[in-house]
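Slide 14.
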Amino acid sequence: MADRRGLSGVLLLGGASTRFGSPKALARLDGRTLAEIGWAALAFCDERIAVGKTADRLDLPFPLFDDGTEVRAPIAGVVAGLRAAANEVCVMLPVDTPRITREALAALADSCRDAAVPQTGPLPGAYRRSALPVLEQALSAGRLSLREAVAGLDTLVVDVEPDLLLNVNTPDDL
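Slide 15: predicted structure.
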């Protein structure tokens, strides 16, 4: 797949990894870290941003943009990614979704209104900068459910192969 101009890829790395027991981003699958797998999945975007907590001091092969909040919730990373992105549309990829494909991410981006999400929920997903006011308001009010915030947006649900959406919550999931 060729590079996509006008599309930012945002890798979300700010989770607490409480069920996992150590930073998911550094967990290895088939010889690569989940962070490296996610970064590679976003290589088709003309801009890639990794968003998380610099205080976590993760040893990553790419720069990490601090989300600027103490909150450990996906909505914080989505807001920070939209604010930092050079492009109008951003594909948001949580680091714990290693099976997702470039094709599935591109389908989300191509379907984006304010947002485009798979049938399972708000991540991975594509978000337009037009979603930022609603997401910022929810975050500042302490309403941290991205699923609830997305309900207030013009969102298209895109059918994505369920196996591609499996996420890693525990070391056994690897």
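Speaker note: Residues 74-84 form the longest helix (11 residues).
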